[in-house]
Amino acid sequence: MVDLSTRIGSLLLDNPIMPGSGTFAEGLDDVIDLNRLGAFVTKSATPGYRSGNPIPRIAETPSGMLNSIGLPSKGIDDFLGRIVPFYSRFSPPLIASVSADTIAEFESMATAVSVAGVAASEANISCPTLEEDGRAFAMHPDVTEQVIGRMVAATDRPIWAKLTPNTGDIAEVARAAEAAGAEAVVVANTILGIAIDTETRRPLLGSVTGGLSGPAIRPIILRMVYQCARSVSIPIIASGGIGTAKDVVEFMLAGATAAQIGTASFIHPTAMISAIDGLVAYCERHGIAHIAEIIGAMEHTESDPVLLTPIGS
Ligand SMILES: Cc1cc2nc3c(=O)[nH]c(=O)nc-3n(C[C@H](O)[C@H](O)[C@H](O)COP(=O)(O)O)c2cc1C
After folding, report:
1. CA-CA distance, 51 to 72, in Å (whole number)?
2. Which position among 45, 65, 113, 127 bears the catalytic label?
3. Atom of ligand 1 nearest to the CA of 64
């Protein structure tokens, strides 16, 4: 028997597989056995109603997709009244993803979702702050430390900080989240991109820019997970281009403790279940009793150079 359990701070998950926020919804209950997942992560909830970005909001790109969904949300009351009760009949812990425009709003969202049935809160700080320069909270280590610190103080639930890859030094931001008391960092959200229709000369997305996800970003996010794993001691939950058990193993070898599957579920709605089954098969094939053994277990000799800044080709 292979033990797939993995620990994220105070939470012990049956296995390391969970959905990426916004790529999963209640309807998947008709397709897969939700009780098999390591955890649930909800679409980011915001304090009030938000309609989201102008259409089109999705564009396919090579090995990935761009989205500019723009966090449409029915607000916190709908989240507490409809989403939380839906998940309470399943066994995996529910992680409430929250998003907001200001630090004070993030703080009150941390309090608001601290209800029975919610095990932890994932702070989607990859969204723009209205208080600073309009760039994402998690582009700034100091703002990250402030917002996570305020959330941690506002609740007894664990706070996971979901970082943005659209920053100069993600490891520095991860350290700021750890210093503020985050129990884990999620590495990472989508990478900013643009696609243009060359016939019409118009952007393919209604808001011009969007977030790139899917296999196209996997090596970049893998490098960021590796960097963060060398910089913090809290668990890292990987998110970016993960679709199979092999991908999950790759991220765990680089230092991740768990993995979120996002865009892959749009192509294969059963991807998360296949990944869990594939992890068991991998462990059996390699004589691994407990999946946690492979966390950070990438083998390289001391003399292998680890280049974390490009030196040209
Ligand atoms: C359509 C779509 C909606 C998303 N919505 C959210 C969201 O509400 N909150 C959030 O933190 N991330 C959101 N994400 C980001 C994903 O959770 C994930 O971090 C990202 O897509 C990278 O993983 P992937 O390549 O496996 O999709 C969204 C991604 C997509 C594609």
Report:
1. 5
2. 127
3. 25
